[in-house]
Amino acid sequence: MNLLELHAVEVRYGGIRAVKGVSLSVAEGEMVCLVGANGAGKTTTLKAAAGLLPAAAGAIHYAGAPIAGMKSFELVRRGMALVPEGRGVFGQLTVAENLAMGAYVRDDAAAIAADRERMLQLFPRLKERYQQSAGTLSGGEQQMLAIARALMSRPRLLLLDEPSMGLAPLIVERIFEIVADIAREGVTILLVEQNARLALETCQRAYVMESGAISLAGNARELLDNPQVREAYLGE
Amino acid sequence: MEIFLQQVINGLTLGCVYAVVALGYTMVYGIIQLINFAHGEVVMIGAMVAFSVIGVLMKTGMPPLLVVAAGTVVAVPACMATAWLMERVAYRPLRNAPRLAPLITAIGISIILQHVAMMIWGRSPIAFPQIVKTHTFEIGGALITNVQIAIIVISFTLMGALMFLVYRTKLGVAMRATSQRQDVAGLMGIDINRVISATFVIGAALAAVAGVMIGSYYGQTQYTMGELLGLKAFCAAVLGGIGNLAGAVLGGVLMGLVEALGTGYIGDLTNNWFGSNYRDVFAFIVLILVLVFRPSGLLGERVGDRA
Ligand SMILES: Nc1ncnc2c1ncn2[C@@H]1O[C@H](COP(=O)(O)OP(=O)(O)O)[C@@H](O)[C@H]1O
Ligand SMILES: [Mg+2]
């Protein structure tokens, strides 16, 4: 079953069409990536899927139902979580408070506490800085916090927007390992990345986006070998 | 020395009321960067509603304290409803409009509320029933009344309760999250419209109590009372650093102290050229002085680049 499905979706900023008829799907349990150059429309697509921007045309279905007119907070309650581009941690809130906000839609205190412990094990740096305000964390730590915070809602579908942005290669690797682990635990993932190689190596299926439209789609391994992709996105 | 202590007591009393009102300004500003100019009128509505309820109940022979408490208990939800409606009808549709639009709307709302109050309670000042018997205590040669003590104690209790709410409850954390990044707050599953409504309503509850306190203290109320009081409380919020809760408390108390001390000493200082009828200017002089040297206010972090 497709957990997320976009059909001929168009998104506009004023008169400008940033996304021009994108169709893509993510099946339950799958890990799919959306790669493409800066300005291709990846973030815009993700925002439309998460209810942050309205689709001007086309349809988006989540868990079998159309999401037209739904706000992002309603989608979170239905199990969708987005880790936004640039991480979006609440800088003046502590790490603890950021995690608590991740679990905002839940009220099972005991299970929330257990999940929080799990997150602090997964990301030991966050444990060290638990009572510090998130604004004082390094970029990598903030990205880890943003992912941990999203996981605190126990999402069914996790949308990640450029988790590697601005981070040192070692940290990027660590973050991708963790994302792969999350996927293995059964969370469905749609990953947006400019770092095409890493994304294609991590995911099962992939879409390539170019000036607002999908230009290529298919098995991630095969796309890695595709000469077009190699030339345009892998710098070969 | 007695004059000094006396003015400190009076100033602290007044400053507490300013602080409670200033918290309402600062909370709303913190979350949606709106200067809710109608907040002073919410205080006035609180005073007026309490006045009406007290007027009716005092004839029943109920104990005075209970009558005042009942007046407050009715004023609080009345003010909460007023503020809820105000946000829902006037401010929410303008949430993404240019900044000037909601600001002008706020001024419009405050005029509307004044006129509604004028139609209900009339033009002239109304004597706020002083039904609680006043006791006076002496400390160090200065006098303090039971009403002043009550105002100070209630104010600090309210401030403490608000701090607890904002820093220790889930709603409070959601309010702070929303004030930082509305879009990301939505991604946490926070219904930001509800959080913003809650912010208005909580500020209004404080305003209602402030209205009853100021009415009881001055012994009178009028449909215009929210104007100057609101302006001073707003200045207190700016003085402390708008958007900052502790700043509003500090600004309010300072404002009250400066006003009282200024009033107490202006005659001596100017050889009686100016009298205590100039009391309202002191607060503003301090505000201007502070803003010249610290544009972001005493405890504010960001420079005031927002209108
Ligand atoms: N808020 C906005 N207003 C106007 N245009 C925007 C806005 N955000 C993005 N765009 C434009 O939409 C296009 C797609 O942007 P985006 O979705 O951010 O691309 P990507 O995430 O792939 O880098 C770009 O041309 C960008 O300039
Ligand atoms: Mg992007």
Defining traits:
heterodimer, A: 236 residues, alpha/beta, 6-stranded mixed beta sheet, 10 helices, 38% helix, B: 307 residues, mainly alpha, two-stranded antiparallel ribbon, 4 strands, binds adenosine-5'-diphosphate, binds magnesium ion
Given helix and strand content, the structural type of chain B is mainly alpha
Whole-number radius of gyration of chain A? Answer: 17 Å
Taking strands numbered 1, 2, ... along the chain, how are they ordered across the largest sheet of chain A?
6-7-8-3-9-10
Task: Output mean pLDDT of chain B.
Answer: 92
Portion in beta strands of chain B: under 5%
Number of strands of chain B: 4
Q: DSSP helix count of chain B?
A: 11
> Which small compounds were modeled alongside the protein?
adenosine-5'-diphosphate, magnesium ion
User: What's the multimeric state?
Assistant: heterodimer
Averaged pLDDT of chain A: 95
Give the neighbour order of strands across the main sheet of chain B. 1-4
Helix content of chain A: 25-40%
Which overall shape of chain B is indicated by the principal axes computed on the Cα atoms?
Answer: globular
Order of helices and strands of chain B: HHHHEEEHHHHEHHH
Span between termini of chain B: 42 Å
Report what the structure shows.
- The complex is a heterodimer of chains A (236) and B (307).
- Chain A has 236 residues and is α/β, with parallel strands linked by helices.
- Chain A is built from ten helices and ten strands.
- Chain A has helices at 42-49, 72-77, 95-102, 109-122, 124-128, 139-151, 169-184, 196-202, 220-225, 227-233, and strands spanning 2-13, 16-27, 31-36, 57-62, 65-66, 80-83, 157-161, 188-193, 205-210, 213-219.
- In chain A, strands 6-7-8-3-9-10 form a six-stranded mixed beta sheet, sandwiched between helices.
- In chain A, helix 3 runs parallel beside helix 6 (139-151).
- Chain A is globular and about 45 Å long.
- In chain B, 49% of the residues are buried.
- Helices cover 73% and strands 4% of the residues of chain B.
- In chain B, a hairpin with a 2-residue loop joins strand 2 and strand 3.
- In chain B, the strands form two sheets. Chain B has a two-stranded antiparallel sheet with strand order 1-4. A two-stranded antiparallel sheet of chain B has the order 2-3.
- The longest helix of chain B has 31 residues, at 2-32.
- Chain B has helices spanning 2-32, 39-57, 64-91, 100-121, 146-168, 170-180, 182-187, 192-218, 225-240, 245-269, 279-293, and strands spanning 126-127, 136-139, 142-145, 220-221.
- With 307 residues, chain B is mainly α.
- Chain B has a domain at 24-233.
- Classes of the chains: A alpha/beta (236), B mainly alpha (307).
- Chains A and B meet through helix 2 and helix 3 of A and helix 6 and helix 7 of B.
- Magnesium ion is lined by residues 42-43, 85, 162 of chain A.
